[in-house]
């Protein structure tokens, strides 16, 4: 199954759990072996493989034990400033987001309670 935006969170967790099972089996690990290598309980491995939620640190430990930690780089790549941002910010890094600007409202501007 392809992980995409139309899937529910639960479906994505289930698919990630299935993929973790596949990788564990490729490496010939039992759940107990993976748990020991990752420093988590066997029950935690069972829950993640079943599609339950987990803490990020637990997932990182399991990915490290499954030799998949380097794949996180593609998940959330390092942000590289665009050339025009460098010119505008004079080499400084952004620290705040301005949010999205709303389109101009129709009609003249009015006070809120005079409408």
From TrEMBL:
Q: Positions of the region Disordered?
A: 91-115
**Which SMART domains does the entry mention?**
HTH_XRE
- Cross-referenced Gene3D superfamilies, in alphabetical order? lambda repressor-like DNA-binding domains (1.10.260.40)
Any one GO molecular function term: DNA binding
Spell out the InterPro entries in the cross-references. Answer: Cro/C1-type_HTH, Lambda_DNA-bd_dom_sf
Q: Which CDD domains does the record cross-reference, listed alphabetically?
A: HTH_XRE
Per UniProt, residues of the HTH cro/C1-type domain are 20-72
Classification via Pfam families: HTH_3
Q: What is this protein called?
A: Helix-turn-helix
Annotated organism of origin: Desulfomicrobium norvegicum (strain DSM 1741 / NCIMB 8310) (Desulfovibrio baculatus (strain Norway 4))
Origin organism lineage? Bacteria, Pseudomonadati, Thermodesulfobacteriota, Desulfovibrionia, Desulfovibrionales
């Amino acid at each position: 199954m392809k992980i995409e935006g139309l899937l529910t969170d639960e479906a994505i967790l289930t698919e990630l759990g299935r993929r973790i099972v596949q990788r564990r089996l490729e490496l010939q690990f039992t759940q107990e072996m993976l748990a020991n290598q990752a420093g988590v309980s066997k029950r935690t491995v069972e829950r993640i493989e079943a599609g339950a939620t987990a803490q990020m640190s637990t997932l990182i430990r399991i990915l490290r034990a499954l030799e998949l930690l380097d794949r996180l780089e593609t998940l959330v790549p390092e942000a590289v400033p665009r050339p025009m941002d460098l010119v505008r910010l004079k080499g400084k890094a952004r620290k705040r987001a301005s949010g999205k600007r709303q389109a101009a409202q129709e009609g003249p501007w009015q006070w809120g309670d005079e409408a």
